[in-house]
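Input.
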Amino acid sequence: MKHAKLGTYYLEKLCILPNYRHNGYGKDILNYCEQYVLKNRGVRISIGIINENSILKEWYINNGYYEIEIKKIGHLPFTVCLMNKELTSESE
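Output.
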C-alpha cells in the first residue's frame, strides 16, 4: 500500500489465488488495509482494476468503493477503472 498526499493510500497488486477465493480472505485484507489507513490518519483508499472484469468491479462496489474514472492506457489491452473508498472510523 502506497501513501500519497492528502490522506489517500493506493492499494496495488492485491490478488487472491483462485483456489483460495470465496473464503473471505479478500474482505479480510481490505479490512486490514482500511484500519491501517485510518490508524495513519488517511481518509481514502484508491485502487485501479481491469474495468472489463465486472465480477471484481461489483465486488469492490459491494465493499464500499465507487468509480472515479475509466481510462485507456496506451500499452494496456484493457481499460482501467479507478475506484475510491472514503473512510471514517465507522468503516467496515
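DSSP finds two helices and five strands in the chain.
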